[in-house]
């Protein structure tokens, strides 16, 4: 019995117009944040290798805070950025992930399976490559196995903005969802593999403000003077427990109800989407995350003294740096594209007619841009400011740069095809605000 082509499953087929429009808005915001991130990282690198380098490291290691009631809240500015500001980033990740799987297109298990499987493949293969390269180093080098497994969505989207490619909406959605799932898996890795000691009392006490926060948002409370103290208390107790404090951000994001958006017709005959609470919080917090939290973290995390060309060449020959570079540049595209091809074979699914496998390869290479979470895991694996932490920074920055350049070259070569696809996708002959392609039956 042969399959009916019209009913065969399609990979990277278009989702709904509402979801595509929402993803496009998110990517525009992430583009701005990515540009700010690049500027912050570049400033850190220049300062750390200038005659005034000592002042940069002194600023990063400046201790701020206090220790009230025995709480360990006197941290360096670098730690405040990694533990505190990144909690805002992971709060947005939690909101985005919950919305995707409750009210987004990915509530359909068939659509969710592809980015989840690709994210897993894109983490397993880089980790295996890192382990293979550093297996003989010893002395705890393998603690960094998770460093090349992360994808930086802000950095990746910033590259897309620079090369001005008309990436098809289905692939842009895939890249965003892949990175969000990637971030969730990274948080699980951090909580499970990079937590040495746990203070049970603090972890148990953390559940009190978290439950109060969940109760408040379930009742529709939006007042910052109610939610912020509860969120801060959750973060403080999570930090005190020994589990990385950014996990608190994800838990707080998961606590916010999605309240699936409803639609209604207005007097003008148009349809208006009511914004759910999770989407409302995400809309308010994403600029803070992309415009402040991530760039400040990048500024304190990316500064590495290269020691001139000779120092850079020595760093690039170290197995730890080489393992990270190989994991990002080779492991990510191999893991993501390979998993996607295997999934296509197992399900006998076909690539959407508007795309080619080389397009999927380009997105997979973009996913090799690891920055924010990779640097965070490097700090946790080897210690902020340690010799190996410096190697991590060299490896992450070099690997991300190579992945960005390689992806840019490939995507630019496909730019003409993308432009034609983009023109078809945005055609709106009846001027109702919804592109015509979203008003036809999808295969």
UniProtKB/TrEMBL annotation:
Protein name: Na(+)/H(+) antiporter NhaA
Membrane topology: Multi-pass membrane protein
Stated family: Belongs to the NhaA Na(+)/H(+) (TC 2.A.33) antiporter family.
Catalysed conversion reaction: Na(+)(in) + 2 H(+)(out) = Na(+)(out) + 2 H(+)(in)
Transmembrane segments: 31-49, 69-92, 112-133, 145-163, 175-194, 200-217, 288-308, 320-339, 360-382, 394-412
Domain of life per record: Bacteria
Role, per record: Na(+)/H(+) antiporter that extrudes sodium in exchange for external protons.
GO biological process: one example: regulation of pH
Keyword terms of this UniProt record: Antiport, Cell membrane, Ion transport, Membrane, Sodium, Sodium transport, Transmembrane, Transmembrane helix, Transport
Location of the protein in the cell: Cell inner membrane; Cell membrane
Pfam families the UniProt entry points to: Na_H_antiport_1
Organism of derivation: Mycolicibacterium duvalii
Entry annotated with the keyword Nucleotide-binding: no
Annotated GO MF terms: sodium:proton antiporter activity
GO cellular component, one term: plasma membrane
Any coiled-coil regions, as ranges: none
UniProt-listed Gene3D superfamilies: Na+/H+ antiporter like domain
